[in-house]
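[audit] Reproducing an earlier prediction to check determinism. Same input, same settings, fresh worker. If the tokens differ from the archived copy the diff job will pick it up downstream; this log only records the rerun itself.
[audit] input (553 residues):
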Amino acid sequence: MKYQKFNKINLPNRTWPNAEITKAPIWCSVDLRDGNQALIKPMSLEKKIHFFNLLVEVGFKEIEIGFPSASEVEYEFTRHLIENNLIPDDVSIQILTQAREHLIKKSAEAVRGAKNVIVHLYNPTSTMQREVVYNKSQDEIIDIALNGVKWIKQYFGDFEKDNRGAVRFEYSPESFTQTELDYAVNISNAVIEAWNPEGDEKMILNLPSTVESATPNIYADQIEYMSTNIVRRENVLISVHAHNDRGCAVASTELGLMAGADRVEGTLLGNGERTGNVDIVTVGLNMYTQGVDPELDFSNVDKIVQVVEEVNEIKTHIRHPYVGDLVYTAFSGSHQDAIKKGMAEQKEDDLWYVPYLPIDPKDVGRSYESIIQINSQSGKGGVAYILSSVFGYKVPKEMEPYVGKVIQEVSDKFDGVLSEEMIVKSFEQYFMNRENHYKVENLQMHIDKEETSIEGTFYMGETCSIQKHSAKGIIEAVGVVFERLGVAFEVVDYSEHALSKGKDAATVAYFGVKVEDEVYYGAGTGKNISYASVTALVSALNLSQRVYNTSKR
């Protein structure tokens, strides 16, 4: 075999499998560093400012803004944020640096005047990096890290006094997940002791899955092992930083939190080297759907997508969790029917309980209008949902299969998704106000307490006659006239409702009639229930003539 299996972690008393995520971690966005370095076209100063403002708006309190000592663009961006007072007082900017004296010195110059700074020191620690890249021993790699700590203390030592701000320290053993665990503990402990966090001071120990190389449970074991074996745990915040090489960054992050991590580094929508960093939007909304407040504002995901796409110049996949264009859309008939029923039962203050929708789309700024879309895979429930939610037609349940069949025939001839306008047009043309064979014109009615009298011109094909009749109701009166003209039918279903509110509101009625053992449905609109009902009955009778040309009236 060309590839070697990852070693299992000997952790017989692991506790993370029984843990739950009950609160939000500390979030740190690395979009402006990890994300930016992975772009074909790195961000301009203007784009960085635009993205930084979005991160602040979403609610990030820790934002890694770059590697100012390694790039003039990132140095200028850092200075621009500070000199133009663009950093809120409750937001810490994080800067990255290697363990080189001149880089650390320039990093200190870059952040002068800032109020809250996290200095993020990193150096590779994995066996592969030590042997292939650096050709150094374990002790020599530890010395690199300790020199970095020494220089940070030297050049940032007077930061709080000179800048009236606070400096915090973060250390990352890069390629942590590919580093021997005992050695990862040793180098981390050496750095912790050298930094010497005390009292309320918290040092950040970031444990990155720089290259995801094992299943998420292995990462969780590694995090729990570190959490229980490092020194001064009470003064250390353990941070996870997962990459997505195996497609498991979200799961690795969640299991890492269950294993004791306090903090998460990631990006909005998961941009990053190779297959990307963990997507903080997905992790946060996963928490939200479990009743945990992520303490980030995802109430307008479309704005997040718009800014991220504009700045990164990367299109978001239509199936991206929570934010993709189609993640709240069902095409399958059975799914549509279940969603329709769930939405009908859902009450505003109840727990969310709708099949196939793990989150209420409105919670992330989406509407219900795109939940159901109709193509050749769709069914009656989806069609009924669109007619009701978009156009106000509350098609009776018994009529839904008839409507669904008609729309299915239209969809089979159309390559793609039917627009809402195409659906309602097909419904109205086929079922409503039909006059292709039977027709009633100049209908006059007089209603008193006892009976309803009607008079009108009744058409049957090319022949017509003026008819009068009195009965207990308008439908009975019209029905008797049709029977007198030789039209035999039985009413099997009827319903009506207002299409809008107000004194001029239109009414729609639905009729099901049985003619020669076959059931036909029609619908009609009118200025009141009586006229709408007559029109619906006439439509149903016309459909019983098996005239299927939907363009006829």
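[audit] rerun output stored. Observation attached for the diff report: The two ends are 73 Å apart (CA to CA).
[audit] end
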